[in-house]
Design a protein that fits this description.
Blueprint: H1 2-22, E1 41-47, E2 59-65, E3 70-77, E4 82-85, E5 92-98, E6 101-108, E7 111-122, E8 125-129, E9 134-140, E10 153-158, E11 161-164, E12 168-169, E13 174-180, E14 183-190, E15 193-199, E16 206-209, E17 215-221, E18 224-230, E19 237-244, E20 249-260, E21 268-278, E22 280-281
Parallel strand pairs: 13-22
Antiparallel strand pairs: 1-2, 1-9, 2-3, 3-4, 3-5, 3-12, 5-6, 6-7, 7-8, 8-9, 10-11, 10-21, 13-14, 14-15, 15-17, 16-19, 17-18, 18-20, 19-20, 20-21
Amino acid sequence: MKNVIRNFIAIIFFCLLCFNSCSKDNNPIDSNCNFDSNLVGEWYLVDSLNLSFPSPDYNFQGFQINKNQTMIPLGIETSTGKVAISQYPRIDSIISAINGKIVIKYAYKFYAFTDTLHYNINGNRIVIGDQNYSQTYIKTSLNTLLFNPINSDVAVKIDTVYNNNMKVFNFPSAYLSKKTSSDILIIVNFYSSYITVGINNFNGVGVYSIPFQKAEYSIFDTDMVIRYLSDSTSSATFIVEQYDEISNICSGTFSFDAYEGFYMLGPKIEIRNGTFTVPIYK
């Protein structure tokens, strides 16, 4: 009986020891021995897109870590240039983050996996990665102004549903790339899909026929991309109503049919009533 009592007292003592070591104050963050509260906040880095054609000047990457051990991606609100929560955020879970090691559980549609990374916080900077690759992020906060506001707006009816380009994204989600003096490309990023339209005989304001397979509508479906390409009928039009390289703005309308596969044999998607006002990169 004495041994039972002795063991019970030992268990109580052990529990109290753990409680005291994890609860130095009333802060609920510090009560979790598996979570480094210094990670809480918004972190970002900026690099270039490194595309083979003229593109936006920045590629923003960022994330927010919360007290409840969730990790949410950040973007830039293009119309204001400010840091914001991504428009359609994926919320990941931090299983543990302590002593320079962070374990993150990612969830995407039907898939879930974990990743273990190393981190080091030095003032307002954090280096995070593995033995082969790491990146340095800077601490920031929501609504911080990092870039000049940009007018980047596209609205289009895809079959029967109206869509708008992403308003919070890693870079301006819709823009015109002037590849040469007579060769332009419009890129529009939506949630899980994108549109591109290429014109080869560009000469400013005017009406253009979209050449065969020069317009594309693509959908991201889990780990694959489904592509729909334009036909060469007269309905495939691209109208430029304003083109001003001084003000750095291009606006107009577009419309086309797109087919999965080649030679109009696959399913068709109707792209209608497209309007755009986008920045110019050259």
